[in-house]
Amino acid sequence: MSGYVCKTDILRMLSDIEDELTRAEQSLNHSVNALEAEMRETENDRLSVLEEEIIDLHICINELYQSPEHRYAFEKVYRIG
User: What InterPro entries does the database record attribute to this sequence?
Assistant: First the structure.
């Protein structure tokens, strides 16, 4: 058995390695894109929750501000007026 490897075999191995690296890069890009999409979705979900909480808070503040006794207490506590 000879330890000799011909140039053609080496070029074929390098080509195979290049193909594997290309597939790995494509797989990695796909995974990164999926992760980014998931992160955007999570961020949008969080923003939606915050928006709902802000609306609820705004409603509560408006309700507190409607009655005179609550308005006085509200202004006194939060120094609004």
Answer: DUF5446
